[in-house]
Amino acid sequence: MRAAAAVLSLALICATGWTAAAADTPMPKPPRGKGEQCVEPTDVMRRDHMRFLTHQRDETMHRGIRTKKHSLIECLECHTRKDVQGRFLPVNAEGEFCQVCHDYSGVKMDCFECHATTPRQPKPGSARSSAEPGSDISFRLRITP
Amino acid sequence: MQSRNAKSKTNRKRREFIGRAGAAAAMLTLAPGVRLVDLALARPADEPASDKVRWGMLVDATKCAQGCTECVDACNEEFGLEGMGRPKTDAQYIRKIDLKDKTTGKRYSLPMLCQHCETAPCVDVCPTGASFRRIDGIVLVDKHICIGCRYCMMACPFKARSFVHENLTDQVPEAPRGKGTVESCTFCVHRVDRDREPACVEACSREGHEALTFGDMNDPNSRLSQRLRELPNRQIRADLGLNTGVRYHGV
Fold first, then answer.
1. What 3-state class would DSSP assign to B175?
2. Do B48 and A68 touch (CB under 8 A)?
3. Span A79-106, pLDDT tens digits
C-alpha cells in the first residue's frame, strides 16, 4: 500500500493541476481510453481511482464480489493501447495511461508488481486459450434448485 | 364442504405434479453436461459468497493415471506458473505424487493440493491475517496483506504452499502474483465465482479420467456429495482434525 501522504499529494496535484492549470504549466497528457466516458466522471476518477480500486480489491478478495465497474481488469480493457504488431502495450509503460500521470506526480504504483499490465493475450509461442472466463457453459457447478 | 374437498384434491394433484416436475428436473441434472437448471442459479456478480456453500473436491485415486500430469499442466496454464529452473522452490499449486506400498507393491498415483481445511493451520499462524478462509470454505492468501514470512508454509501439513522468489512480469489478469508473497491453490476461485469448475477438474474430465469431482459439500444433491456418499473416502492426515475440503478415494 502507498502511504496516505503520497496518495493525498497525488490527489492534490491532480485536483489542482487539472482545474486551475496555468497556461505555461506542463501538464500530463494520458492517452484517451476507449469509449466516451469512464465509469465515473473524469475529475472523480482523477482524484479517487485508487480508493475505488482498493475498495473493490477487498470486496473481491474477501467476499467474492466480482462486479466489473471498479475492477482493475476492466480498466485495462479500455486503457491499454496496441503497438503496430497489434500486441497490447503495458499500461505502466512509459507514455501509457497509468504511467503518464504517475511519472508526472512522482508516485510509484505497486499494483503492477503482481497485477497484469495488459488484457489477456497469448504469449508468443504459447497455446494459452484466450477464451473469455465463463464463456463455456458446459461446466456449470450448482445442480440443484 | 364439498367445494373444500374438491379444492384439497386439486391441491394434492398440483403438489404431486410439482413433485414429479421436481424429480424430472433432478433427473435432467443427473445427465453429465446437460444441467439446464443451473444457468438461472449462478450467483450474481454483486452478491457475496455464502456460508451455505462449502466448496470441496473428491480425488478418485483409482482413476488417476500414473504419469498423467494434465491437472498440473492446466493449473500452470491457468495461473501462469512457470518454472525458474529451480524445482525445489518453483511455484506449484498442485503436484502429482506416486506412492508404492512396500509390502504389496501396489502403486498409487494422486494429485496433492491445498486441502482447504475448515480449521486451516496456515490461517491460524498467519501474523497479518493474509491467510484466510473465505466464508464458502476456500482458503486463500490476500497478497496485499502478505508480508512473505512463510509461517504458513511451515504450518501446512500438505506442503501445499509456494513462495515467489523472483520479480515477475506478464501475469495472467485473473491471477495476480508477485515477488515476496506466498501462494497456493485457490480452487480457481475466479472461475468458481462465475460458476465454472477449477482448471484441474476440467482438464481431468477432458482427458476422460474423471478422477476429480468438484462441488458443494453442503448440498446433498450435488454430484460431489453423491460421490462422497457412494465411495469410501478419507481425509489425508485425518488425525489432525482439520476437516479438509479435499477427500481421497482409493488411497
1. strand
2. no
3. 999 999 999 999 999 999 999 999 999 9
